C-alpha cells in the first residue's frame, strides 16, 4: 500500500502539478488579441511570442537533459522559477507596452521553464511505473493537454467583461492576470518540486560514451527515424489545429467554443489512451502506426468527400478530433518508446534531444498552413500537405522503426 501511495505522491501528483502549470502556455490564443491591442502592435508581430516559446521549449529540453538526469530537484526548481518569473515578466512588459520584453519573457524565459518542466518528471514516472510506462507518461502529458481546458475559464473570468466590439472593459486586467497566474503556478510547481522523488531502489549508473558526444545520437538511424516521425506528427497537428477556428468559421459552423473544448478533450485523451495501450504491445512503435494510419484515413476521407467545400460539419469535426488525439498521443508515447530503444539510464537526455523536433515543428507547423492559405486560400491544400507528411511518417514507423526481437527493450545508443 505504501508503495502505491509513493507512486502517486512522489511521481504522478507532482508531474500533474508541473504539467498542468506549464501547459497553460497554450492559452496564448485567448490572450494574443488583447495583448496586441493593449501594446498597439500588429497581431502577426505579437504571434511570434508563442512561436518563440515553443522553440525555446524544445531547445531547452534538448540541452537540459543532462541537468535533469543529474538532479531532478534542481531541474524542477529551475523550471518553476523560469516559468513563474517569465509569466510575471510578461505582465510587466505588457504594462510597459514592450514587445521585445514580451518576446524575452513569454517567449524565452517561459519557454525554458516549459522545456525543463516538461522533462523533469518523466523519468521519475517511468521508474515508479516500471510495468506501465505508457500509462505513467500518459497521465503527466495529459495534464499538459488539459491545462488549457482547466485554465481557459479561469483566465476568461479574470479578464472580466468585454465591450460589444470584443475589447476589454478594463484593459489593466490583462497584465494583472499574468501577475496572479505567476504566483498561482509558482506555488503549484514548487509543491510538485518538493514532492518529486525517484524510487529508493533505483541506482543511477554512470555510463561512458567511449569518446562520443551527446549529440552523436543524431548519427543513430533509429533515433533519426524517431525524430523525423515525431517532427512530422507535430507539424501536421499544428498545421491543422492552428486553423481550427478559421476552418469551422469557413464551413459556417457556429459553436466554435464547444468544438474547441471537445478537441482539447480528445487531445488530452489521446495522450493517455495511446500511450497506455502501448504498454500492452510487444513493440511500442506500433502505436505510431495506428496514429498515422488513423490520421491518414481521416484526412483522405475528408478530401474524397470534399468535406470542406461541401461544409460537412460532422466530418470536419471528426477529423479535428482524430488529428488532436494523434497529436497528443505522439507526445505521450515518445518517452516509453525511447526507453524501450535506448534504455532508462539516459532517458532524460535522449528524450530532451528528441524534443528538439518540437522546437522546429513549433516554427514550421503554424507557418506552413498560414503560407498555404495566403497563397491559395484553400483549406483542402492544407489537407493534401498533411496527408503527404503523414504518409512519410507512416512509412518511417511501419518499415524503418520496427524493432527486432532483441531490440524491443533496448537499442544501444552508440555504434
Order of helices and strands: HHHHHHHHHHHHHHHH
CATH superfamily annotation of the largest domain: MFS general substrate transporter like domains
Strand content: under 5%
Number of domains: 2
Q: How far apart lie the N and C ends?
A: 43 Å
What is the top-level CATH class of the largest domain?
Mainly Alpha
Mean pLDDT: 89
Main β sheet profile: none
- CATH architecture descriptor name of the largest domain: Up-down Bundle
Radius of gyration, Cα only, in angstroms? 21 Å
Report the helical percentage. over 70%
Q: Strand tally, please?
A: 0
- Low-confidence stretches are 207-211, 409-415
- What's the number of helices? 16
- The general outline is globular
What is the fold-level CATH name, i.e. the topology of the largest domain? Growth Hormone, Chain: A
Membrane topology: Multi-pass membrane protein
Transmembrane segments: 12-36, 48-68, 75-94, 100-122, 175-196, 223-241, 247-266, 287-305, 311-330, 381-401
Subcellular location: Cell membrane
GO molecular function: transmembrane transporter activity
Describe this structure in words.
The protein has 415 residues and is mainly alpha-helical. It has 2 domains: 1-199, Growth Hormone, Chain: A; 217-415, Growth Hormone, Chain: A. It contains 16 helices and no strands. Helix 4 runs antiparallel to helix 5, helix 12 (286-304) packs antiparallel against helix 13 and helix 12 (286-304) packs antiparallel against helix 16. The longest helix is centred in the C-terminal third of the chain and has 30 residues, at 313-342.
Amino acid at each position: 500500500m505504501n508503495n502505491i501511495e509513493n507512486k502517486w505522491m512522489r511521481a504522478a501528483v507532482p508531474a500533474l502539478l508541473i504539467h498542468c502549470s506549464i501547459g497553460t502556455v497554450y492559452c496564448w490564443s485567448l490572450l494574443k488579441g488583447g495583448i496586441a491591442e493593449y501594446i498597439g502592435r500588429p497581431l502577426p508581430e505579437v504571434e511570434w511570442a508563442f512561436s518563440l516559446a515553443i522553440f525555446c521549449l524544445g531547445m531547452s529540453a534538448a540541452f537540459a537533459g543532462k541537468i535533469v538526469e543529474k538532479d531532478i530537484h534542481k531541474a524542477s526548481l529551475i523550471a518553476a522559477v523560469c516559468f513563474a518569473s517569465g509569466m510575471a515578466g510578461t505582465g510587466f512588459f505588457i504594462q510597459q507596452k514592450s514587445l521585445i520584453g514580451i518576446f524575452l519573457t513569454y517567449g524565452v524565459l517561459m519557454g525554458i521553464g516549459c522545456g525543463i518542466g516538461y522533462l523533469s518528471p518523466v523519468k521519475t514516472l517511468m521508474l515508479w511505473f516500471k510495468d506501465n510506462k505508457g500509462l505513467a507518461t500518459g497521465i503527466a502529458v495529459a495534464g499538459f493537454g488539459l491545462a488549457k481546458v482547466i485554465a481557459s475559464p479561469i483566465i476568461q473570468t479574470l479578464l472580466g467583461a468585454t465591450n460589444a466590439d470584443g475589447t476589454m472593459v478594463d484593459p489593466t486586467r490583462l497584465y494583472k492576470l499574468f501577475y496572479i497566474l505567476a504566483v498561482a503556478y509558482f506555488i503549484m510547481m514548487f509543491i510538485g518540486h518538493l514532492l518529486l522523488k525517484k524510487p529508493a531502489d533505483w541506482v543511477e549508473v554512470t555510463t561512458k560514451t567511449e569518446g562520443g558526444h551527446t549529440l552523436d545520437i543524431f548519427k543513430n538511424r533509429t533515433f533519426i527515424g524517431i525524430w523525423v516521425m515525431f517532427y512530422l506528427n507535430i507539424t501536421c497537428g499544428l498545421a491543422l489545429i492552428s486553423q481550427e477556428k478559421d476552418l469551422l468559421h469557413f464551413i459556417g459552423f457556429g459553436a466554435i467554443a464547444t468544438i474547441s473544448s471537445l478537441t482539447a478533450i480528445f487531445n488530452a485523451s489521446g495522450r493517455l489512451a495511446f500511450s497506455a495501450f502501448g504498454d500492452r504491445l510487444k513493440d511500442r512503435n506500433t502505436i505510431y502506426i495506428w496514429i498515422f494510419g488513423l490520421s491518414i484515413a481521416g484526412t483522405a476521407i475528408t478530401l474524397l468527400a470534399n468535406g470542406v467545400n461541401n461544409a460537412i460539419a460532422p466530418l470536419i469535426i471528426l477529423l479535428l478530433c482524430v488529428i488532436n488525439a494523434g497529436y497528443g498521443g505522439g507526445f505521450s508515447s515518445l518517452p516509453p518508446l525511447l526507453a524501450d530503444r535506448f534504455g532508462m539510464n539516459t532517458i532524460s537526455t535522449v528524450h530532451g534531444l528528441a524534443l528538439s523536433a518540437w522546437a522546429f515543428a513549433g516554427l514550421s507547423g503554424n507557418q506552413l498552413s498560414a503560407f498555404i492559405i495566403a497563397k491559395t486560400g484553400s483549406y483542402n491544400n492544407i489537407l493534401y500537405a498533411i496527408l503527404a507528411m503523414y504518409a512519410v511518417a507512416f512509412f518511417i514507423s511501419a518499415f524503418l522503426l520496427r524493432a527486432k526481437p532483441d531490440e524491443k527493450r533496448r537499442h544501444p545508443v552508440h555504434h
